[in-house]
């Protein structure tokens, strides 16, 4: 029973830390310096086609 509590506590703390790190990485991903061109293309891609939906 003691091993269960130890492993559960470890999973809670390490899991929370891993999710927090993953959240920060995913939030910062679009703001990295190499993504500027890709972000600009995504932002302006709706204006490239002259099609009005007809």
Structure description:
This protein has 54 residues and is mainly alpha-helical. The chain has one domain. The protein contains 2 helices and no strands. It starts with a helix and ends in a 10-residue tail after the last helix. The relative contact order is 0.07. The mean pLDDT is 88.
Q: How is this structure best summarized?
A:
The chain has 54 residues and is an all-alpha fold. 67% of the residues lie in helices and 0% in strands. It has helices at residues 2-28, 36-44.
Poorly predicted regions are none
Instruction: Work out the number of β strands.
Output: 0
As a whole number of angstroms, the C-alpha radius of gyration is 22 Å
Total helices: the number is 2
- Give helix and strand order, one letter per element, not per position: HH
The proportion of residues in beta strands is: under 5%
Structural class: mainly alpha
Largest sheet: none
Envelope shape: elongated
Instruction: Tell me, rounded to a whole number, the average pLDDT.
Output: 88
Helix content: 55-70%
Give the CA-CA distance, first to last residue: 67 Å
Oligomeric state, counting identical vs distinct chains: single chain
| Structural domains: how many | 1
Provide tags for this entry.
about 55 residues; mainly alpha; about 65% helix; elongated
Task: Give the SSE map.
Layout lengths: L1 H27 L7 H9 L10
